[in-house]
Amino acid sequence: MPIIVEGKYDKITLENVVDTLIIATNGFSIFKDDEKCELIRTLANRDGIIVMTDSDSAGNLIRSHIKNI
Predict the structure, then answer these.
(1) DSSP line for 9-61
(2) What pLDDT sits at residue 29?
(3) Which of 30, 35, 37, 49 meets the CB 3.0–4.6 Å disulfide criterion with 25?
(4) Neighbouring-strand partners of residue 50
(5) What separation, in Å, do the N-terminal and C-terminal C-alpha atoms of the chain show?
(6) Residue range 18-66, pLDDT digits in tens
(7) What is the pLDDT of residue 49?
């Protein structure tokens, strides 16, 4: 199952632990990246996704945006 994370360092860390597709939102860039949003939507509908963001306000906004995709 694909994993969505906030940043590139989160992605690098997880790549050492799991063998699955990991997509970094690059923080708030996800709000403007229609192509990445479409990819996330497709993956979520097909396989489901795991969203791993920080529990701070930025992470909550990103998680909420992904949920609405």
Answers:
(1) HHHHHHHTT--S-EEE--GGGGGT-HHHHHHHHHHHHHT--EEE--SSHHHHH
(2) 95
(3) 30
(4) 3
(5) 17
(6) 999 999 999 999 999 999 999 999 999 998 999 999 999 999 999 999 9
(7) 97
Query: If DSSP codes are grouped into helix, strand and coil, which group holds residue 65?
Result: helix
Distance CA(32)–CA(21), nearest Å, equals 21
Look at the block and give the residue holding tokens 């708030």.
Answer: 28
Q: What is the pTM of this model?
A: 0.89
Specify the residue for token string 């597709």.
Answer: 21
Contacts of 50 (CB under 8 A, 6+ apart): 1, 2, 3, 4
Residue 36 contacts residue 23 (beta carbons within 8 Å): yes
Q: Record the tokens describing residue 38, joined without a space.
A: 């479409």
Q: At residue 48, what is the residue type? A: G
